[in-house]
Design brief:
By secondary structure, this protein is an alpha+beta fold. The protein has a domain at about 25-70. It has helices at about 1-70, 325-330; strands at about 75, 80-85, 90-95, 105, 115, 125-130, 135-140, 145-150, 155, 160-165, 175-180, 185-190, 200-205, 210-215, 220-225, 230-240, 245-260, 265-270, 280-285, 290-295, 300-305, 310-315, 335-345, 350, 365-370, 375-380, 385-390. The strands form 6 sheets. It has a 7-stranded antiparallel β-sheet, with no helix packed on it. A 4-stranded antiparallel β-sheet has the order 1-27-26-25, with no helix packed on it. Strands 2-3-4-5 form a 4-stranded antiparallel β-sheet, with no helix packed on it. A hairpin with a 5-residue loop joins strand 2 and strand 3 (about 90-95). The longest helix is centred in the first third of the chain and has 69 residues, at about 1-70. It is globular.
């Protein structure tokens, strides 16, 4: 009996030891299994969440690209600009940065941007590019003008007394309005770009004038700066000399824009003295056969496409009591524009952008046209950026 007890006790002990070993070994493996399974599950959930996040970002990007493609008016620059022009290669726009005066070149879709000059220019207000785009006349808030030659990276200050200035068609001369403080008189003068070898072309009335070369000719045109309080006259004079010739007169606040072939002149003017209503019209190169185009806008908001068609930004409304174009030129008011293409012969017009497609607020100036690429560019006075319209 004692032997049976001992044997039973030994067997029980062996079984207990076996159970302990079994539980120890297989329990750890079971825990490892469940731990591994749980970790794998968490990892799978993490991967799934990451994929969902990537998919959502991709969908948002595609949606954004679709919306951008639908937009007829798109920003081309992220910064405010000064005096942009389409470059001679017809593939880029060159401009000065309003922030620091650096010079940039950007292609038409905005994907390539090249720095031309890193010179910091403070208080820059306007730049007039030469026809070859290698020289500029810069104007600063101190009302001083400077010539800068990008080819040799050198600048020179022009003499005091100049208030208005323009390049000739060839770009080898400048023509400007000069005030002589000694004689208290104004005159139109022709000189080399640096102001040397100047000569007087004609006497001028007091005050500012606008100057523009007549395309495809050796003529310069000029007129009193647009003012709703007075009528002005458009005159031309030959670069080789002679007497000025009056082309057109009799409109209040008139401003002028020659067609590329110089056969027509676009005119904006007030319908009456000190009126808020502005109207666009056209005449021939002799100042004859004037007719209204029934478009309430300024020539500064237009660009010629060819000898018969213009693209214009049209203000939807002018504040009651505003004096045009004075208040607009002084920056007292801003407009909210639509865009039209106008046939100046027939007077017919068509919308470039439908009203429901204009989702932003645009006060357009400095219009530039690339018909080959199907783009109309402009500077928005609201934020100073360049925008592109897909035609």
């Amino acid at each position: 009996m004692k032997k049976i007890f001992i044997i039973s006790s030994v067997l029980l002990l062996i079984i207990l030891i076996f159970l302990v070993i079994y539980n120890f070994v297989f329990s750890d493996k079971s825990d490892d299994y469940f731990k591994t399974d749980n970790s794998s599950s968490i990892q799978d959930e993490s991967i799934t969440a990451e994929k969902e996040k990537e998919l959502k970002v991709s969908e948002n990007k595609q949606e954004s690209e679709k919306n951008e493609q639908k937009e007829k008016i798109k920003p081309l620059t992220e910064e405010a600009v000064i005096s942009p022009i389409i470059s001679l290669d017809k593939k880029h726009i060159q401009y000065y940065s309003k922030e620091n005066g650096n010079v940039w070149k950007i292609n038409f879709d905005g994907s390539e941007k090249t720095n031309i000059s890193q010179d910091v220019l403070t208080n820059l207000t306007r730049v007039m590019w030469s026809p070859k785009e290698n020289k500029v006349i810069s104007r600063f808030t101190q009302n001083r003008f400077y010539l800068y030659d990008h080819d040799i990276s050198k600048g020179v200050s022009l003499k005091e007394g100049i208030s208005d200035i323009a390049w000739t068609n060839m770009g080898d001369k400048i023509i400007y309005n000069y005030y002589d403080s000694k004689t208290n008189s104004y005159s139109l003068n022709l000189a080399n770009p640096d102001g040397s070898q100047w000569k007087k072309m004609a006497d001028l009335p007091s005050g500012r004038i606008s100057i523009a070369p007549v395309p495809q000719s050796s003529l310069i045109s000029y007129w009193s700066y647009p003012d709703a309080h007075q009528q002005n006259s458009l005159k031309t004079i030959s670069l080789v000399g002679g007497e000025p010739k009056e082309i057109f007169s009799g409109k209040y606040g008139a401003d002028y824009l020659w067609s590329p072939d110089s056969k027509k002149i676009l005119i904006s003017s007030s319908s009456e003295k000190e009126n808020s209503k502005i109207v666009l019209g056209v005449t021939d190169s002799k100042g004859e056969n004037y007719h209204s185009l029934n478009a309430p806008t300024l020539v500064s908001k237009c660009v010629w496409a060819d000898g018969n068609k213009v693209y214009c930004a049209i203000p939807t409304s002018i504040p009651e009591g505003a004096t045009m174009p004075n208040d607009y030129q002084a920056g007292k008011i801003k407009t909210k524009d639509t865009f039209l293409k106008i046939d100046v012969v027939s007077g017919k017009s068509e919308r470039v952008v439908e009203l429901d497609e204009i989702t932003g607020h645009y006060d357009a100036e400095n219009l530039m046209l690339s018909l080959y690429d199907g783009y109309l560019f402009f500077v928005n006075r609201i934020d100073g950026k360049i925008y592109r319209i897909d035609l």
